[in-house]
Write a structure and sequence with these properties.
Strand order of the largest sheet: 1-2-3-4-5-6-7-8-9-10-11-12
Structural class: mainly beta
Keywords: Signal
Largest sheet: 12 strands, antiparallel, barrel
Oligomer: single chain
Strand content: 35-45%
Number of strands: 12
Protein name: Outer membrane protein beta-barrel domain-containing protein
CATH class: Mainly Beta
Order of helices and strands: HHEEEEEEEHEEEEE
């Protein structure tokens, strides 16, 4: 599992995006490596499901975050789309997002722009009742396996009611890759405002204006126990999430995420562990 070689040869463009403040709007999308698409064509199998020997056999890589922003940003020639949903006893909700990269984070500066739409469940009477734009800007230092980015999420475009209105959340993130031949690791950390503030320390009745000016830390770590599977521990907005991301079909840039969210019932407004599921497509063109 020579992830270091893949970074140097292809230029790492893997990226995870937090799609809006609410857990229902988290869609982890993985963008393909810039040159990996061509490599994978040479290794196509007549089977739909099979196991690869290393990362070079994949059209995309498993995700490494369920909410913490990434210091690694894509560039021009990459696109992504994802859908995410959360479920617990009293509620089920979901959101979708799509976007693409710009610039060149390897040679200069790159980033991504995406559109998030929620909710996508018409049964709650609020289908597509809010939309927002997310922007990121960053640089990837392949020689060090390091990426740094700044960004903003939840720039409000439309909302049905005042309760649906989203306030922008700003962040700065750093991602470090720790390649090895046993179980490569990716760690991301940073700080963010508003939606990234620690809700576990807030009173349930905290006003939007009070939270808008708060900042909080986030961190996520992923260990790749196989090129097609990562285990992820994520701490964002004061909530702990643990789960896995898998790429079931090596020849297709599709990743699936399954996780338990709010493991320690840190969200006082819910006080219940949630189930989180994501489906992401990341591709190079």
């Amino acid at each position: 599992m020579n992830l270091k070689k893949t970074i140097v040869l292809g230029g790492l463009l893997i990226s995870s995006f937090a799609m809006a403040e609410n857990a229902a709007n988290i869609a982890a999308s993985s963008s393909a490596l810039s040159e990996l698409k061509e490599i994978s064509r040479e290794k196509k199998s007549d089977k739909l499901f099979y196991l690869v020997d290393d990362f070079s056999g994949l059209a995309t890589a498993p995700g490494f975050s369920f909410g913490a922003p990434s210091g690694l940003v894509p560039g021009f020639g990459t696109g992504f789309m994802g859908v995410a949903g959360t479920s617990y006893s009293d509620d089920t909700d979901g959101a979708l997002a799509f976007g693409g990269g710009f610039g060149d984070p390897i040679k200069s500066v790159g980033g991504a722009a995406s559109l998030s739409i929620g909710s996508i469940d018409p049964r709650d009477g609020g289908a597509f009742n809010r939309g927002s734009v997310n922007l990121s800007l960053g640089r990837t230092f392949t020689a060090y396996g390091l990426g740094a980015s700044v960004g903003v999420s939840n720039v409000d475009l439309w909302h049905d009611t005042h309760d649906d209105k989203l306030d922008p959340s700003y962040y700065a993130a750093v991602t470090k890759l720790l390649p090895n031949n046993v179980a490569p690791v990716i760690i991301s950390a940073g700080i963010g405002s508003n939606g990234y503030a620690d809700i576990s320390k807030d009173d349930i009745d905290t006003t939007r204006n009070e939270r808008e000016h708060k900042w909080g830390e986030f961190i996520s770590g992923a260990v790749y126990i196989h090129p097609q599977m990562s285990l992820i521990l994520d701490y964002s907005s004061g909530i702990t999430t643990f789960g896995t991301s898998i790429v079931p079909m090596p020849d297709y840039p599709v990743s699936i995420g399954l996780a338990a969210q709010d493991l320690f019932k840190e969200d006082k407004a819910v006080d219940e562990i949630k189930f989180l599921g994501t489906l992401s497509v990341g591709f190079a063109f």
